[in-house]
UniProtKB/TrEMBL annotation:
It comes from Pragia fontium DSM 5563 = ATCC 49100. This is Probable membrane transporter protein. Belongs to the 4-toluene sulfonate uptake permease (TSUP) (TC 2.A.102) family. The keyword Cell membrane applies. GO terms for cellular component: plasma membrane. It is a multi-pass membrane protein. InterPro entries: TM_pro_TauE-like. It is found in: Cell membrane; Membrane.
């Protein structure tokens, strides 16, 4: 691998790690389009281009999320009981998304959820607080939310981290706790996704050297080396920024993700 590719992957890791720590997102929304471009420029075949970008992104998120979780845990910002309740449902929702796609109209789903995210973003931008009486639901309610987050994430290509933060803040969870908890939820999702892409791409032909299935190991190593150190920087900043500013930053991300989701669905 030439020096320009090494630098590109290192720079990508720096950005992804910082954003993961700051906003509790895995960084897939940033990594996948950039990795697709980089892989295409490196000559990876068109038939595996997107699969390689998705698999490599998932594998990179594992280390990034681990570093982010450690940093947020030091600030006691991870609601571990919520993580334990919502993670199994999110995993089931993600794995069931293929079946859901056959019975749910994706365009209607995209419109509905983009409207919901727009509503949450507007609340954050205007600093409109949810009803004081609104709290996190019980195990059943959290599980249903997890199923929705996992299914929608897989169906419309929006990261589960952003939806988890939106759900938790909607339930009056402090934004820093929502970000820390979202980072913890993202790690098992990334692990499951990585294993899936490795297995599904195990017998794929014409994948690059040093790949395991659809995971390109050199990119994973280079991205992870830097993201491991930049994620705590983002997490530290998340606990220093004023809540109102942090909400506005996240609201801007929600708007961008909503637009990306609609563009993805309606351009297909």
């Amino acid at each position: 691998m030439s020096i320009e590719w090494i630098i590109a992957y290192l720079m990508l890791g720096a950005v992804v790690g910082f954003m993961a720590g700051l906003l509790g997102i895995g960084g897939g929304g940033i990594m996948v389009p950039i990795l697709t471009t980089l892989f295409a420029a490196q000559g990876i075949g068109q038939e595996h281009l997107v699969h390689m970008a998705l698999g490599t992104s998932m594998a990179s998120i594992v280390i990034t999320a681990f570093s982010s979780v450690r940093a947020h845990h030091r600030y006691q910002a991870v609601l571990w009981p919520v993580v334990r309740k919502i993670t199994p449902a999110i995993l089931i929702g993600t794995l069931s998304a293929t079946w859901l796609a056959a019975i749910l109209p994706a365009k209607a789903l995209a419109i509905f959820f983009s409207c919901f995210m727009g509503y949450v973003a507007l609340q954050m931008i205007l600093n409109i607080k949810p009803k004081p009486s609104r709290q996190l639901p019980g195990t059943l309610g959290i599980s249903l939310a997890g199923l929705s987050i996992g299914g929608i994430s897989a169906l419309v290509a929006i990261g589960g981290g952003s939806l988890t933060v939106a759900f938790l803040t909607w339930c009056n969870v402090r934004i820093q706790n929502a970000i820390g908890t979202s980072a913890a939820v993202g790690m098992p999702i990334a692990l499951a996704g990585t294993v899936g892409y490795m297995i599904n791409g195990w017998h794929a032909s014409n994948t690059p050297d040093y790949s395991v299935g659809y995971v390109y190991l050199p990119a994973v190593v280079l991205i992870s080396i830097v993201s491991y150190f930049t994620a705590p920087i983002g997490a530290r900043l998340a606990h220093k920024l004023p809540v109102a500013l942090l909400k506005k930053i996240f609201a801007g991300l929600l708007v961008l993700l909503s637009l990306k989701m609609l563009q993805t669905i309606f351009s297909g």
